Amino acid sequence: MSKSSLGLIAKNQLIDRFLGKKVGSAGAAAALPAARAAQHAAIPDAFCRFDRHPGYEKMQVPKVAAGRLGLVNPFFKVHDGVAGATTRIDGREYINFSSYNYLGLSGHLAINKAAKDAIDRYGTSVSASRLVAGERPIQRELEQALAEFYEVEDCILFVSGHATNVSTIGYLFGPKDLVIHDSLIHNSVLEGIKLSGASRRSFPHNDHRALDNILEEIRGQFERVLIVVEGLYSMDGDVPDLPALIDIKRRHKAFLMVDEAHSLGVLGATGRGIREHYGVAGKDVDIWMGTLSKTLAGCGGYIAGESALIELLKYAAPGFVYSVGLAPSLAAASLEALRILQKEPERIVRLRERAQFFLQRARQAGIDTGYSQGYALVPVITGSSLKAVKMSDRLFENGINVQPIIYPAVEEKAARLRFFICAMHTDKQLSSTVDLIARLV
Question: Residues 181, 186, 262, 425: which is the catalytic one?
Answer without folding.
Answer: 262
